[in-house]
Design a protein that fits this description.
Blueprint: E1 3-11, H1 15-26, E2 32-34, E3 38-43, E4 46-51, E5 61-66, H2 69-78, E6 82-83, E7 87-88, E8 92-98, E9 104-110
């Protein structure tokens, strides 16, 4: 699996409120906001994402950008993890992965990868 980026993802019920709080904590505005669906901050070389209405899990997890989603998803399934079928989002293609220990991962790739 060729990993391109990794980011922490935190589910939030009130995205606008969470943006205000995290902006105050970090001292910066979010790098990207997609309505009530998603926001992300790029801080000190790391990405922290807030998942509003567009989330795969209701627990914190990691999102992992990969070069080849199909191959990476197969590798995760071969490791015995629960892998959802690929879903097309507005900005990416992704699949949810739950490890045997219950950790939440989202593998994603740019559309057309």
């Amino acid at each position: 699996m060729e990993i391109q980026k990794v980011a922490s993802v935190f589910p939030v019920g009130d995205l606008a409120g969470a943006i205000r709080i995290w902006s105050s904590i970090f001292g910066i505005a979010p790098t990207f906001v997609d309505g009530d669906r998603w926001a992300q901050f790029d801080v000190c070389g790391h990405r922290v994402a807030l998942a509003g209405s567009d989330r795969a899990f209701d627990v914190p997890g990691l999102m992992i950008k990969v070069l080849d989603l199909a191959s990476s998803a197969k590798q995760m399934a071969d490791m015995g993890f629960n892998v959802s079928p690929p879903q097309e989002g507005p900005h990416e293609i992704r699949c949810s992965v739950e490890t045997r220990s219950g950790s939440a991962l989202v593998l994603y790739a740019a559309k057309g990868s």
